[in-house]
Every structure is written in C-alpha cells, then in structure tokens.
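Hello,

Following up on my earlier ticket. Below are the two sequence lines again, exactly as submitted.
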Amino acid sequence: MLNVEVARPQIAAYLSAKLSSDGGVEVGPLERITIGHSRGMFRVNASYRQGGEAVERSFALRVEQAGMFGTNTLDEVRTMRSMRAAGFPVANIRFVEFDPAVIGTPFFVMDWVEGSSGPPNDAALRDYVTKLHELHQIDWRKKEIPFARIPSVPVDAVHQQVDRWMDVHRWGRVLPEPLLEEAATWLKRNAPDDLHLTLVHGDPGPLNFIHKGDEVQAFTDWEFSHIGDPNEDWLFLGGMRGRGVMEPPEWREYIADVTGHVITKETWAYWDVFNQFKGACANTSALRIFITGANPAPNMAAIGTALKLSMVQHLSTIIGMSYAREGE
Amino acid sequence: MPEAKRPTVDEVLAGALHTIENQLLPNLEDTWARAAASQLMGTLEYARGLLATDEHVDAQVDAVEAVIADLLRDHPGLEAVLEGSGGETRGFTVLDQASRLLSHAVANDSPEAEAIRDQLRPLIVQQATDTLNETMPMLMAFGGRPRRVER
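Thanks for your patience. The regenerated structure is below:
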C-alpha cells in the first residue's frame, strides 16, 4: 500500500521528469481523497516555475492496490482515453506509469477536475442520469474502445461478465462459496430475453462522478466498464450505489421519468442479483489482499468478509424466492 | 482474588479499542484517517468476538458433509455431479461439492434437485448468515462511525 509520506519525494521527482519546469517540481503533502476502495486516490498539489513564471497546479493521482477488484490500470486508462476522445466527460490523463521502481505499483496522473463527488443537487443528479443514458446510446461499434472481450450476441455478454467476476472471486477466496457458485449458474440460466449490447460504465452512482453546480464535470471509476446490457448500470445505480439518495422503487420511476427507459420488476430483480453477485465477487479480492498483507488496512478485511457476505445474503434471498415461486 | 499474571488478549484488545476511541479519534481531523480508525475498531471488535467463541469452521464442514452424504445415499445419481471435485483441504473439497450440487439444482427440476434445494441449501444459507453475523462489527464500523466499546 502506498505510504503517502514515503511516496511524496518520488512523486515530486516523477513530475519533475515529466513536466517542463525551470528547476524541478515541489509537491505538497499528498491529500487522500476519501472515495472508493479500488484504488488509492490522492490530490497532488504541485508548484514549479515554467519560463520564469510561477505555476501552481493540482493533479489527481490514482494508484493500483494489489489487484483489488481484479482490475488494472492499463484497461482503465485505455477506456478513459477512448471515452474522452468520444466526447464523454472524463478527466484528462496526463501520465501513466507501470514501472514499480517509481512508487512500487502502477499509477496514473490526471488533471484535477474542480467540483464535488458528494451529494449532488437535483439538477446535477438529473444531468448525471441523462448522461448515463447518453453513454448507453453511443454507437460503441464505431468507437475504438479497446475492451479485452467483445460479446458476439447479447447473452454472450452476460456469460462473459459472470465468468469474469467468478474468476475474480476464485482468485480471492480461501474456500469455495457455494451460494456464489449457485448464483453464477442461476444468472446464466435466467438471463432476460430482451438484452441489448451497449457501453456499460459498471460502477455508476454517487461518489463516482464529479459535479459542479447543476452539471456533471466528469464520470470517474471506469475500471468495471465493458460491453453489456444497460440495465446492469441502472440497477447498480438504483439498487446499490444510489440507495443513499432514494430507494430502489423510486429510482425505477426516476430513471423512467428522466430517460424514458422503463425497467420491469422482473428485469429489475434479475439485474439486482447480477450486481450483488458482481459486488460479492469483486469484494472477495479484498480478502486475499488483506490476508497476504498486500494491504492490511481494516477496510480490506471488512470488504472481503462482511460486505461480501451481506451481498451474498441479498442475492441468495432473491434466488430462494425464485425457487419458491417455481414450486407454487 | 489472585492478581492476574499478565493482561489477556481480550483486555489488550479492549484497551486498544478504548484508546482509539477516546484518545486517537478526537485528535484526528483527516477524514480518511478517521474512517480507518473507526474501521480498525470494527476489526478489533470482530477479533474479540472470535476470541469469545469456539472456531467452528470444522463443525460447519462436518454438517455440510453429513447432508451431502445423505443426499448421495438417497440419490446415487448425484455421484456423477461430484466427479472431479476436490481441493487441498477437506473443507475445500466439501464446499466444492456443495457448490456443484447447488449449481446442479439450478439447472434441474428433478426430485434430486428438489432434495438439494430442501436439505443442502438452507444449511448453506444459515452458515453464511452465521458468518455474516460474526463479521458484522466490521460492517457496522465500515462507514466510519465508531460504536461505544463494551468492556
């Protein structure tokens, strides 16, 4: 795990090499940004002289954490750059570094985006939902988005994602988790008929976008993005990440009101299970990261056990109810 | 009462919790550091819970193994579902078998699938709930709000 005090001179040296400054770059104390657990996020305040002029500039430093959630810097950077090139609001990535000699782990540096990732006002929330809908309308086949896996038909996307998350779970687990193995089969057997193939952000909702006033400035946290069904995003927003804003039934109505995208109760339940499965599998990676000492912080222990199990309980309840209905 | 020879592990953990809550947290201003301190308290409370109860993973594995044995006795056809299952430990093997059986039941509507859903699934769900309850102190502290320390 990045030790901010140790890394500060390395970051200053790195920026001195990357930025054209008159006499090197000075970096203030790194400020931990208190959002997200997939990456270490820091604000870097740099000061230097350029052509005799004093420059003060902030950057966002995003640091990998030992395979957390089974994602990596390369995929995230490639997706973000493609989305920015497609005109979507995404922070500009200045530098990407894979050499562990710098701070011990891959990282990238973005231009700082002014705004807040805290609770948005009504207009900013509406703008976010509108833009998420616009993301789903992008003709991804005409964009050069370098996803490792492109599904051939819609149901293939479901299978790809279930297998992807099961692989992450199996990497992180200590013992098999029968209810997750059951859920993987259930998700493949019960995939809805009306699937579509669109860009999927994968982790949308409050804390994962920056807003200023009434407008969204940037979508963040692209490491889960892929080609899949847009309802995965809507349920991640309305069933998980957005629950602090309003309850799921309200979200279902809100999404329909803002975008015209209507989600049936059956489809809602399916993607609810899917996202709980995805979350539980992703969270298992924290268990391995904790017990191997790669990051022994207490949030890793909580994510890899209790948070994961709360999702397992949620999804197993829905699957159990589906069995009960079939038996009636 | 005889004087204690040295502090117990639980007393050390309780002291650590008390210190974090009353001496460290009030002096921490950084949001991330405060959240980490609170989460650390949750982890220590979880550790105290572990100390107070018997380790029961083996008992859980025993219970699952017994139900699987019953299922195989009543439905010998299920042997084929378990072909190739295994693991480095008995616990891994048994839970791998349970995983295969639950997955098999999803895709089938037979009497044996119904038996898996009726007999094995409730046990697995109950064990997951028990483990969730054990780890709950970490979940309660995850959002950064420390709870009062019980001594």
